[in-house]
Amino acid sequence: MRSMPVATPPATIDRLKSGQGHGGTHPPEYGGDGSRGPDEGPPDYERRLYRARLALALGIAASSVVFVTVAVVLLVRQSNVVLDPQSHLYIREWTPITLPVRLLLWNTFILLLASMTVEMARRNLAREMLLAPVHARQASAPPRQSGLLGYLPAPHRRRR
Questions:
Q1: CA gap 150, 142 in Å, rounded
Q2: Strand-pair partners of 83
Q3: Residue 149 gets which letter from DSSP?
Q4: Phi then psi for 14, rounded to 5 degrees?
Q5: What whole-number distance in Å separates Cα of residue 27 and Cα of residue 37?
Q6: Considering 19, 43, 52, 127, which has the largest number of Cβ atoms within 10 A of its Cβ?
Q7: 10 exposed, middle or buried (CB, 10 Å; 0-12, 13-18, 19+)?
Q8: What's the confidence (pLDDT) of residue 33?
Q9: Is there a contact between 131 and 124 (Cβ–Cβ < 8 Å)?
């Protein structure tokens, strides 16, 4: 006896409606100290800045601890000596290698070039953000009518 495959109808997917009030419930926006209560008042930007600086300091401290730990382990490992069972002498296990200087120089050059590119982009973005109100005002101003239909220069009038 052959069994027939079971056919199921395709699953339906409800599309979310975009716009105000159709995306579900949003948390209330109150202040900035984290309690999000209605009596909180305006956002406390000093406290938020303090938290951001504290997080940055903790991240830098954690990275520094990891770097110092790795450096100390490498130095201890480099100065480590073991007893050779054949010659009964203490020998170093550390094997020095020659660094690929050309590759390191290329890597440094690429990193410097990328850093300069990011800095130029950051400065350009800051300049555009600073000048955005000026450009918006110029774009909303009506065009000047200088002459015939705005295309020809206006004739100069003599003063009497």
A1: 12
A2: 90
A3: G
A4: -80, 130
A5: 11
A6: 43
A7: exposed
A8: 55
A9: no
Q: d(Cα 40, Cα 30) in Å, to the nearest integer?
A: 7
DSSP 3-state percent helix, strand, coil across the chain (nearest 5) = 50, 5, 50
d(CA 114, CA 106): 12
Distance separating alpha carbons of residues 75 and 80, to the nearest angstrom: 9
Residue type, 20: Q
Instruction: Return d(Cα 30, Cα 108) in angstroms, integer.
Output: 47
Instruction: Of 156, 137, 135, give the one whose Cα is nearest residue 146.
Output: 156
Distance CA 104, CA 114 (A): 15
pLDDT tens-digit profile, the chain (160 residues): 566 666 777 767 666 555 555 555 655 555 555 555 555 666 688 889 999 999 999 999 999 999 999 999 999 988 888 888 898 888 888 888 899 999 999 999 999 999 999 999 999 999 998 888 877 777 776 655 555 555 555 556 666 5
Q: Which residues of 109-139 are buried (b: 16+ CB within 10 A; e: fewer)?
A: eeeeeeeeeeeeeeeeeeeeeeeeeeeeeee
State the Cα angle at 94 between 90 and 97, rounded to 5°.
140
